[in-house]
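Posting for a labmate who doesn't have an account.
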Amino acid sequence: FKPIVYLAALNNGYRPNTVLDDSPVTYPSGRRGETWSPKNYDGGFSGNISLSAALYRSKNIPAVNLVNDLGVRRVKDYAAYLGIHDKQPSNLPIALGSGLVNLIDMTGAYAMIANGGSKVVPTTIDKVLDHEGKVIMDTASLQCDACISTSPLLKREREWRSSNVRITPRSVRDLQEIMKKVVEVGTARNIRSSISQPVAGK
């Protein structure tokens, strides 16, 4: 979920070299005076860290701070724009993926990032062939006049078109470059030698 948080940040004035704070922090949690102190996976802190490094090193605290700065509502709007429509929590741990997201929606969100922010509607099956290679079903040609009004895809199309989110090309390019660094020098660097083509990830 962190790439969504960082896309929202990059699209709202932050840059890859913006300095973020990776220091211990405590936020209010609940109505009874409880508090929450997010931790990094390695248990350590880096102090001042660039936005780029915070993402490719998968730092938790800067991501939570970004959601606090941007506002949970705005981050949820970006998630919806990218096709994540399962109900997301309205709290800071959303930065760490505390909400439920099904695989096809997350796949679609990453596909949109790879596609420069342009809409991608993922499908689980594109076509079905018989043993002779003849197409017996092609989802591109499927129509259901009786169910158009209740189609989940149509609902998502309406939501996407009505969204107030407008992603700039620069924001997506910056995010793509940072996500490449995840594999080059970040948390996924161990797989770099086994992949021959350009790759980005989280």
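Reply:
Got it, the structure tokens are right above this. The helical segments are 2-10, 51-56, 60-70, 72-81, 103-114, 152-162, 169-184.
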